[in-house]
Amino acid sequence: xTTRRTQQSLVLALSLTALxxxxxxxxxxxxxxxxxxxxxxxxxxxGEFLMGNPGGWAMGADTVPAHDxxxxxxxxxxxxxxxxxxxxxxxxSGHEIKARx
Length: 101
What we know:
Largest sheet: 2 strands, antiparallel
Strand content: 15-25%
Protein name: Sulfatase-modifying factor enzyme 1
Shape: flat
Strand order of the largest sheet: 1-4
Pfam family, one: FGE-sulfatase
Number of helices: 3
Helix content: 40-55%
Structural class: alpha+beta
Signal peptide: 1-20
Domain Sulfatase-modifying factor enzyme-like: 38-96
Organism: Marinobacter salarius
């Protein structure tokens, strides 16, 4: 088994563990949602870039001073989370939504 497949299996297992306590139909929706989202992950190679204002333009407090940022390799989903997936996650995980909108 490749390292990538092992990592995906581990993330899937951890995600499913977090979504316990559902009835059978909700379990199926949660499992399907997690697998679909895992299948839509893409690899992004890490690297370094300059973050902030190197001078001469907008001077917001969050842009000064310019500094180097180093990111490790990571995976990210290539599509936005759908409202349906969010609702499945909220229901399966027992999270409470405090925002009104």
